[in-house]
Amino acid sequence: MDLKDIINEKEKYLDKEVTICGWIRNHRDQKTFGFIDFSDGTCQKHLQVVYDEKLNNFDDIKKLLVGCAIKVTGKIIESKGNQDIEIQATSIELLGNCPEDYPIQPKRHTREFLREQAYLRPRTNLFQAVFRIRSVAAYAIHKYFQENGYVYFHAPLITASDCEGAGEMFQVTTIPLDKIKGEVDYSKDFFGKMTNLTVSGQLETETFAMSYKKTYTFGPTFRAENSNTKTHAAEFWMIEPEIAFCDLESDMDIMENMLKYVVKYVLENAKDEMEFCDKFVENGLIDKLNKLLNSKFTRIDHKDVIKILKEADVKWEFEPEYGEDIAKEHEKYITEYFNGPVFIKNWPKDIKAFYMKLNPDNETVAAVDLEVPGAGELMGGSQREEDYDKLVKRMQDLGMSSEGLEWYLNLRRYGGCVHSGFGMGFERLLIYLTGVDNIRDVIPYPRCPKTCEY
Questions:
Q1: What is d(CA 94, CA 70) in angstroms, rounded to the nearest whole number?
Q2: Cα(175)–Cα(160) distance, rounded to whole angstroms?
Q3: What is the DSSP letter of 447?
C-alpha cells in the first residue's frame, strides 16, 4: 500500500490495519516505546510510526538507524501530536539495513554538499519536492501538446549540423584521442564525417512540421560551454514545438497558452510540493505563479523596449543600445514596468540565428523572447524564414556553408510554407516553478565543467 493513498484518504483508513514499506527518515527511541518518521517516496508528507515494548522484536527495532528500509504493519489512528494521523505498529520488519555513516542524516544539509551526494539527495525533503515537480511538469508538457494535436518527435542526439551556429558542441568520434595528430580524416570515423551531440532539435523538428503540421520534441541537448553560472549546464532538456501555417503572433499565443497550462497543472497536481517550496525556498512562490496565470502577456518590439530603458531614470551597469541584446537588469526592469510577463519581439537580425524570418525593414527578424517576472528570459522563438533565396542569402551573409544543410534548405523548395516555433529550457522552467535558483539543483545528475558525478 502507498502512503499517498493513506494520507489523501485518511478517513477511509482510520482504525484500519495497513501494511506499508518505506524508509526511516528519523528515529527517536525511548525506554519502553519509540517514534519513527516514515516515508515511502509516494508523497511529500511523512507518517509517524509509534511502537512499544509489546513487540517481540522491540530491542532490535530500537537499534534501527536512519536510512533503513522497513515493513510496517499496524492500525491507522488519530495522532496526539502535530500530524493528523499516525500508525500504531503491530509489526516492524527490517528489509534493508543502513550503517551509522549514512550521509543523509536528519539535519540541515547544504545544497553544495548534497550535489556531491546526488544519488542520495532525492531522499531529502527539498529534492523529493523538486524532482516530483519535475516529473509532474514533464507530464503536463506532454499532456498539453498531445491534447492539442501535436506529434511527439524524437530528435537525434547525434548530428552533423549546428543549429545555433555557435560551435560550442561536444564532438562524437570513435577515433582514439591519442591517435589524433594534426588534421583528422573523418571519412575513416564511424559516421564518415564529423558529428556532434545536438545543441537543439529544432532543424530536424521542422521536417516533421512540414508533414504533420504540429510537432514537438522534448529531450536532452548539449552545450560545450565552459560556464559555471547558476543557469548553465552542459546537458539539459529542451521543449521545442514547430507549427506549420503559423506566424509570429500565433506562435506567441501558443507560448502563452502552453506556459499557463503547465503552471496551472503543476499547482493543482503537486500541491504539497509547491507548498513546501513556497514555505522553505521562495516565499510568495505560489502567489507569483497565480499572478502569471491571471496576466495578459504584453507584446512589444525590441526597439520600443530599448527606448523605455534609455528613458528610464536608472543608472545601468550595462547601457541599453539599439541593435544589441538586453541584460538581466533590463529584463527585470521591463517585467516590473509592465507588471507582468512580456514578449519582446522583432529583434535586430545581427544578434539572432540564421533561420529566423527577415522582416520587411531588412534590419530585424520575426523573433521573440518571453520575459517573466523574477526569472527573466524563459522562452525564445521565431517565425522561420520560408523563402529559399532569402535563407540562402542570409547564410551567405553570415559566412555559413550550406554543405550538410541541403535537406534543411530543400524544405523551402518542396512545399514550404509559413511556419514558426519556439524553445524552452526545461530546467529554466523548473527554476521558475520551484524557486530553486541553481540549475544543478533541478536536474538529477548535473553535468557542468569539471562535474560528472553521482
A1: 5
A2: 16
A3: -
pTM over 0.90? The answer is yes
Rounded Cα gap, residues 15 and 451, in angstroms: 50
Q: Which domains does the chain have, with CATH numbers?
A: 3-104 (2.40.50.140), 121-441 (3.30.930.10)
Which amino acid does the sequence have at 249?
E
Q: What is d(CA 413, CA 389) in angstroms, rounded to the nearest whole number? A: 10
Cβ count within 10 A of residue 182: 4
Cell numbers found for residue 177 = 584521442
Contact 46, 11 (CB under 8 A): no
Is 60 exceeded by the pLDDT of residue 127? yes
pLDDT for position 166: 53
Question: What digits encode the pLDDT tens for the residues 90-101?
Answer: 999 999 999 999
d(CA 38, CA 376): 39
Place of cell 496526539: 80
**For residues 200 and 258, what is the distance between their CA atoms, to the nearest angstrom?**
20
Phi, psi of 114 (to 5 degrees): -70, -25
Angle at 342 between CA 341 and CA 348, to 5 degrees: 155
Segment 397-419 shows an average pLDDT of 94
Residues 197-223: tens digit of each pLDDT = 999 999 999 999 999 999 999 999 999
Phi, psi for residue 39 in degrees, rounded to 5: -140, 140
DSSP 8-state code for residue 198 = -
Dihedral class, residue 346 (left if φ above 0, else alpha if ψ from -120 to 50, else beta): left
| Predicted pLDDT of residue 165 | 58
Give the three-state DSSP class for 194: coil
Mean pLDDT, rounded, of the chain: 95
Angle among Cα 327, 328, 330 to the nearest 5 degrees reads 65
35 CB-side CA count, 13 A: 11
Calpha distance 209→243 (Å, rounded): 6
| Alpha carbons 365 and 405: distance in angstroms, whole number | 21
Q: pLDDT value at position 291?
A: 96
Cα(182)–Cα(62) distance, integer angstroms:
66
Residue type, 197: L
Nearest to 24 by CA among 7, 40, 8: 40
Phi, psi of 162 (to 5 degrees): -115, 105
Q: How far apart are CA 215 and CA 145, in angstroms?
A: 8
